[in-house]
Predict the structure of IclR-ED domain-containing protein.
Amino acid sequence: MLTVIKSINDLGICTVVDLHRVTGISRPAIHRMVDSLCSFGYTERVSGKSAIRLTSQILSLSAGYKPESRLAEKAAPVLAELQKRLRWPLTFATPEDDVMVVQETTRDSNPFVFDSGRTGLHLPMTTTAMGCAYLSACTTEDREAVLERHRRRSGPDDVRGDGVAAARYRIAQAAEKGYALRSGGEPERTSTIAVPVVVYSTAVGALCTTFPTSAVVLGDALNNYVPLLQESARAIAASFEN
């Protein structure tokens, strides 16, 4: 069916004979598929019903495909390569409103899994390493919009430890160092190092690794993991820019 749809898209207005010639599919089979496509409104018959063409309804098939999906496609092979060099689970997430959404993770293939960082998981933006890494590379306008919404929800900074002042400090540290660090917090007894992913000078997400705090000396982790994460972040960006 997809082969027929693609062929109609390539040919424009065409006949069953045209489709048979380019696809090699038998004419009876093409007739059945065309009838089905017409019944669902994806194609219509023209020129006295001897030819067919796609309708605007075909666009609905791509409605569920988002830019984030393309980012995940590009990130997946990069994470797979990085996993060969870095033993701990890796995660790539993108922003959605005021949260980071996990788009790709190596947890399914990594034996060292100690949290639930599954694909589709929503993470707070201002209190996580991934969120702060992303915000550190954002435009001032986008970052301030997120912080203002966070301020409205969290109340005065002296009431909650995750207020705007604390968030600004974490983001500033990430901007200065080129990475964001979470040591402690959720999940317990773990640390996370995250770096921003920037495509064409625009922050599009963040890449991180999470590991047991007791398993690696923090200084060693920073020295060893940050360059690898930054290299992989650049590889994800290059896959778009090239």
